[in-house]
Amino acid sequence: MKKRLLKKIIILSVVLAVTAGSFGSAVCAYGASDGPDIKGQAAIVYCASTNEVLWQKNSDKKMNLASITKLMTCLIAIEKLGLNEKVTVKQSAVDAARLAQSEAWNIAGEELTVEELVYEAMLVSSNDAAITLAAAVSGSEKKFVKLMNKRAEEIGCTNTNFTNASGIEEKNHYSTAADVVKIAKEALSNKELLRIAGTSKYILPKTNKSESRDLENSNYFLEGGKAKIDPSGNTVSVKKYKGVFGGKTGTTLARKATMVVGCEFDGLDVYVAVLDSTVAKRYADVKKLLDYAKENISSYEAFPKGQEFDKGKLKGGATNRIEGVAAEAGIVNLPEGASASLVTTEALYDENLTAPIKKGQKIGSVEIYLADDPVRTIDLLAARDVKKGWFLSSFGITNLQTVIIIAVLALTGGFFIMIAVLRISNRRKRAARRKEKLKKIAMEQMERERDYRQRNWPY
Fold this sequence. Notes:
single chain, alpha+beta, Beta-lactamase, five-stranded antiparallel beta sheet, 10 helices
């Protein structure tokens, strides 16, 4: 009876453990009841470095993402246009911004660079800047939206649909907290957008229509400040949060607030997002999410940046092996109670690597496993240049091996030539000795014959 009861308890424990660990592709996830108490109706704490959902609340619920939309808009604009490219603001962009009851930051006919428009869109959430960028890329906002939805699908968003480039509230314009962090991760992986999103203040230079203007980032976690929470000018104080490197806020006409923030914790990038909060509580919500991440992350360095791994195979090179080094430190989140001995690594070189190879070129990856489950992938870079090999390199023979082969062949050939020369010399010497001997015999015969003749012997 006791054995049967114990068996049931074990089975129940296994089922609960599997259920707890089955949230998407995450290694561990916690329900809303286990996490921070926030005003927002949907939220997520996501470790992008290891693809772990640390906590979530209604993270797959479709909601308005407001001006977080501009992360996607600016990402595509930077990828498709040059930062120094001049763009003229059209009246339609200004009218669209005003129609949405938002402030128009620009004047029709004003000329700005793509970079300046991105600063406007990211720091002060200019709707006319976002619409202008969309038109500059695709000719119209409607065509640009197709690019946005295509890109969202490419990065793995499953519950996102864009109908405009600015985030103006519309019925079919929505996303989820789970998709928002994917968008933020992709956008802030772009170095130029990361630089702009991480700028707390920027002076927009004088244009053909306006004097210079001061722009202040609404992501006050970058440097701290006072965030305006209503049209009357009331504010809330927001302290700088160590490690925050970028993000985006959004506010709907109904004063519903959204925000996504990226923060680095001990070598791990974490993104937190909150949707459908209030303007007054948005920053408090995000801080609680960041604090939760900080408390629940335990980083472990499996290997340092620049760690060299076993050599990989290479074709057509001066050498047929190449050393790979880690592009960054192999830091993972070690769950509470987990031993570092459970962390293992494996270097995987790209198949059919062919010379020439440049130092720093990606040549493979390092997989980091936690109890045989992959938790992170780090790029493997070439430790040095490898030039194209000589004529035998296509057979996997290195230049050094080619030199050795040629040297051996030369020595072997020289040896056989020497043997042949010696043999010829010996044959000539033997022939000369035989000739000398025959000559001596002939001379002796001639001497005898002459002696016979002198004696006049008949025989």
